[in-house]
Design a protein that fits this description.
Keywords: Signal. By secondary structure, the protein is mostly beta strands. It has a single domain, classed as Jelly Rolls, CATH 2.60.120.10. 10% of the residues lie in helices and 39% in strands. A 5-stranded antiparallel beta sheet has the order 1-2-8-4-7. The chain is globular, with a radius of gyration of 14 Å.
Length: 143
């Protein structure tokens, strides 16, 4: 477990030069924070929180529509995550897949478990220090 978390955090640092959902709330989702560190400005343009979490979405569950102020990197550990974005195109990420969610309101998206087994993800959030991990957003018109 520690090597995976370390790899995700290190990957975030290399690749980069808890909000409260209300409009489209999550359903059957749990998140456990595994570790957190604030990195001072210098490595990143601004001070940045790196937060590692294990997220589980039950069958039929959803994250609710949201976006992030900083990028999110993750690995699907189990199940299949359906991941529609602002254009409602819905790629499917299977166990072993890497997922990258760019920052910004333009990238409003939802994570859905349309399968019969739980989806388990290990993710690292990298928002500016003090910002929430996600911001709730309304579903796009195409949803």
């Amino acid at each position: 477990m520690r090597p995976l978390i370390s790899a995700l955090v290190a990957g975030s640092v290399v690749l980069l030069g808890a909000g409260n959902a209300s409009a489209t709330p999550g359903v059957d989702i749990t998140a456990v924070t595994l570790g957190q560190v604030t990195v001072p400005a210098g490595i990143f343009p601004v001070a940045t929180d790196l937060v590692a979490r294990r997220i589980t979405i039950g069958p039929g569950g959803s994250t609710g529509w949201h976006f992030h102020d900083g990028p999110v990197f993750g690995v699907i550990a189990a199940g299949e995550l359906t991941h529609p974005g602002p254009d409602c195109v819905a790629p499917i990420y299977r166990a072993g897949s890497f997922i990258n969610e760019p920052a910004g309101e333009w990238n409003t998206h939802v994570g859905q478990n349309l399968g019969s087994e739980p989806v388990v993800l290990y993710v690292v959030y990298a928002p500016p220090a003090g910002d929430p991990l996600f911001r709730d957003a309304p579903a796009p018109e195409c949803a």
